[in-house]
Write a structure and sequence with these properties.
It contains 13 helices and 9 strands. By secondary structure, the protein is an alpha+beta fold. The protein has a 5-stranded antiparallel beta sheet with strand order 1-4-5-3-2. Strands 6-7-9-8 form a 4-stranded antiparallel beta sheet.
Length: about 375
């Protein structure tokens, strides 16, 4: 018998207590105990044995009931400790999500199914996580499902509502700390759909975790989904890099004000305005501990820029790509116009493109141009309202 046919199969991502027979059994035992006791007290001496039997049976059923309560409590504590974020989050109302879906700009979100798969694969590898529970069943014989989780700023909720619509409405939303959302796919149908869409489209070590997810699903549900192989297709032919950038990319505008020579400054500094596209990744994938160097070298070649390494705030090595040359910036702009970003980074990119066009037309050298660029910069990235 496969797991899916078990009556206590957990087909949802929430923690709910399994159906228990003990309340019913205990109620029946108590009814027999009370009835037999009343009859015994009215002189029916043969009910003495029934009183003793029903009393022992009641104690037995209560013991089993309390055993399951203790077992459930222990498992719930482990769940709280390992998934602490679930207790800090609150669900976003489905009506609110429906309203957002009805207001989506369909002209902006126009990926076909194949390109959506590449985009989703890149987003998963940049900003998603795959959580796999223990392969066996719990003490109470409950079947646990894995979870695919995306975490982002609340300003990206339209993007994730669109993703949910492309995934046939699968998944749910949580709000954390007023400005962070989580999109969680935890039902088996949604997970299998997700696997089919991004299968063979991943490029980083996260593909190994993805294959562990496939193995998990295959064993749990007696399926035969093949392992996912690393995608080696030309990055110019798909939107994978868009999804990856959605998670970890940064469009920056740098403004340097003119400064004269001084006692502490040997050279004067001229006015300058420059653009930078930056993308950072950990040197080692957090889950698999595998190196990200290969994929970042591939991206450096794709963007025709250098790959550098610096030490992050947690003393971990960070791989960094920086595109600053104006002709290379043009390549980045052409790519994202062909495969548009879908989240708030889309607005940052379009502002970045405006500044690029102003630099090309020499508008940045005029006083009005400088003021306009300063205004644009003041509303980009984390400063965007």
């Amino acid at each position: 018998m496969i797991y899916k046919s078990k009556p206590n199969f957990q087909n949802h991502p929430f923690h709910l207590v399994s159906p228990s027979p003990w309340p019913l059994y205990t109620s029946v035992s108590l009814f027999i105990l009370v009835t037999s006791t009343v009859l015994f007290l009215h002189g029916f001496e043969f009910f003495t044995y029934l009183v003793i039997f029903s009393l022992l049976n009641t104690i037995y059923t209560l013991t089993l009931w309390f055993r399951d309560i203790i077992s459930e409590g222990k498992r719930n504590i482990v769940s709280i400790l390992s998934n602490r974020y679930l207790n800090m989050a609150k669900a976003i109302d489905k009506e609110e999500i429906k309203h957002i879906r009805d207001q989506l700009d369909v002209n902006k979100f126009n990926l076909n199914k194949d390109q959506f798969g590449y985009y989703l694969a890149g987003l998963l590898e940049g900003d998603g996580s795959i959580n796999l529970p223990f392969l066996g069943s719990t003490t109470l014989n409950r079947i646990l499902n894995p979870r695919i989780v995306f975490t982002s700023h609340i300003n990206n909720i339209e993007m994730y509502v669109y993703i949910q619509s492309m995934l046939e409405g699968k998944g749910r939303f949580q709000l954390v700390n007023d400005n962070t959302i989580r999109y969680i796919i935890g039902d088996i149908e949604g997970i299998i759909l997700f696997i089919n869409i991004v299968h063979n489209k991943l490029r980083t070590p996260k593909n190994e975790t993805f294959n562990k997810l496939i193995d998990f699903i295959n064993k749990k549900y007696n399926l035969k989904i093949s392992s996912s192989i690393l995608d080696k297709s030309d990055l110019l032919t798909n939107s994978w890099f868009t999804g990856f950038t959605e998670a970890d990319g940064h469009f920056g505008v740098k403004i340097v004000e003119a400064k004269p020579k001084s006692n502490t400054r040997k050279r004067s500094v001229s006015n300058s305005i420059s653009l930078k596209f930056r993308l950072d990744q950990r040197f080692f994938d957090k889950v698999t501990s595998l190196s990200m160097l290969s994929i970042m070298e591939e991206l450096a070649k794709f963007l025709s820029c250098k790959l550098s390494v610096y030490v992050g705030i947690k003393n971990n090595n960070i791989l960094s790509l920086n595109v600053v040359a104006i002709d290379k910036v043009k390549f980045v702009i052409d790519y994202f116009n062909k495969y548009p970003l879908l989240g708030t980074k889309y607005k940052d990119f379009k502002d970045w493109e405006i500044v690029y066009n102003m630099i090309i037309s020499k508008e940045h050298l005029t006083d009005d141009g400088k003021l306009k660029i300063k205004s644009i910069q003041s509303n980009m990235n984390s400063r965007r309202i």
